[in-house]
Amino acid sequence: MPRAVAGPEIERLIQLLGRLPGLGPRSARRATLHLIKKRETLMAPLGLALQDVLGKIVECQVCGNVDVRDPCTVCTDHHREPGVIVVVAEVADLWALERANAINAKYHVLGGVLSPLDGVGPDDLNLTKLVTRVGAGGVEEVILALGATVDAQTTAHYVTDLLRETGVKVTRLAHGVPVGGELDHLDEGTLSAAIRARTVL
Amino acid sequence: MPRAVAGPEIERLIQLLGRLPGLGPRSARRATLHLIKKRETLMAPLGLALQDVLGKIVECQVCGNVDVRDPCTVCTDHHREPGVIVVVAEVADLWALERANAINAKYHVLGGVLSPLDGVGPDDLNLTKLVTRVGAGGVEEVILALGATVDAQTTAHYVTDLLRETGVKVTRLAHGVPVGGELDHLDEGTLSAAIRARTVL
């Protein structure tokens, strides 16, 4: 905006909202105006909710999930199958699997994947606690839900090696055609994997 | 999400963020995860910025704009032409005109338009202060930037009548083809208005 139409406090709010994924500078302005308009019913509660979460947020010492309690909501949920641990790179992946209602299991969040180029080594990932959890017994299967990038695949191999001596069954997600996806938009690697893993009808 | 993957504080944050324009339930989750990840550099400053704006926000007693000071940033800007007042329905319209760098003038925010159906009458709009401002002298032109809906046009007529005895020149925005717009996407009213207001090349 060429000239200021509001004080610096408001400009700063626009700038911070514009750093959220999905909000550009223009929608950040719209969001700010909306907040100003709904200042009692939205701006005030949102400010409090942010302070509330900020003050309580902790990393779960069992699984590496981020929550307002430790152990986290997932780890303390007794309706989940305790014998299956789904290993994910990020909390976002855990949320995505839960949104899909894909499996009723426990999770383990690595906090990233191995990436020599970015300087992420085994010590930077939440691996020691995973070995401890599996070693403590009661775990029948570890599902590696780590994506299909080179770094993720490297990480999957590394975790598999790490868990080998515990004797636990280690599996990975299937590769294939995304449900609803069109063949001619898919890369060669996915198509080859889908052919190799074809199933009988 | 079928089961809770995080405590109620986090779910509440997602829900509140989802009420911002431009953010649906899914992008609110993404935004929440981003905030949790950047809790020192984004979540904390955003919480403070919201509290800061919330604590300072006031309606400008001169023009009806909303800002952290009264009179507002626009009214106290001495680089603006003081003899021209642009009348807008909402603060968002003021921001839009400023973003377009359309005019270097002062503003007057009505806080809505007349709408018998929604029970919005003249007493609900910031009209008395407009008459006072114009009556105080020094104003050469009042530009009604009120949109082209029936309610907005009714409001424009009402304001014109209201200002008639002050003798001030009252103008409205031109109707016509939006810049970059295609003719076959425009409604008949706009096309007729554009023909009537055609200009010589």
Automatic annotation (TrEMBL), chains A, B:
It comes from the Bacteria. InterPro entries: DNA_Rcmb_RecR, Rcmb_RecR, Rcmb_RecR_Znf, TOPRIM_dom, TOPRIM_RecR. The keyword Aminoacyl-tRNA synthetase does not apply. Keywords: DNA damage, DNA recombination, DNA repair, Metal-binding, Zinc, Zinc-finger. GO terms for molecular function: DNA binding; zinc ion binding. PROSITE patterns: TOPRIM. This is Recombination protein RecR. It comes from Azorhizobium oxalatiphilum. The lineage of its organism: Bacteria, Pseudomonadati, Pseudomonadota, Alphaproteobacteria, Hyphomicrobiales.
